[in-house]
Amino acid sequence: DAEITQSPRHKITETGRQVTLACHQTWNHNNMFWYRQDLGHGLRLIHYSYGVQDTNKGEVSDGYSVSRSNTEDLPLTLESAASSQTSVYFCASSDGEKNEKLFFGSGTQLSVL
Amino acid sequence: AQSVAQPEDQVNVAEGNPLTVKCTYSVSGNPYLFWYVQYPNRGLQFLLKYITGDNLVKGSYGFEAEFNKSQTSFHLKKPSALVSDSALYFCAVRDYNAGNMLTFGGGTRLMVKP
Lengths: 113, 114
Hints:
The structure holds two protein chains of two kinds.
Chain A: E1 4-7, E2 10-13, E3 19-25, E4 31-38, E5 42-51, E6 54-57, E7 64-66, E8 76-78, E9 87-94, E10 102-104, E11 108-112
Chain B: E1 3-5, E2 10-14, E3 19-21, E4 24-26, E5 33-38, E6 44-50, E7 56-58, E8 64-68, E9 73-78, E10 87-95, E11 101-104, E12 108-113
């Protein structure tokens, strides 16, 4: 079955380090997204991509970057991790330009100490 | 910008009773609304959507949602709650002015007690 997987499930890092979270989908979806989930804020969009070589900033993109070199993967990089980036990160994908149904990964719990 | 609000952080209901999880929206133009559910340690799962048509939308796991234009609401409902319905529920709106991104509400935790 097609799926979307995130790795690692849990990550602890130190302030100032570069961290990359992986997202891999086998749905062959063009659209991929990264959200962060924080208590009191729900889900907030970090970055998104509508295809290979396409990346766009979301609501809370500062301190994050993404790259899309193939259809399956959208890695999220924290250039210099900060304690404010401690959060649960979700990757998602959708199969149409109208994003009527998103498929989510199981999330990565990131702690920045 | 399009937005949704979920006024309740938590809803408690007894098993077998009807449940309602509230959502109000603020959009310019026609709203495109969604409900997602998140079970512990899992990603969000799509429940249902309202694009156009009937105001009562049926979705997965026996859930339905009622679209009310005059009250700008899109409440999630289920006639008889199950303990297994306990989860975090998110309302979302699609912002066609921002690349069709989904904007999510803050979430409502549903607790169904036996």
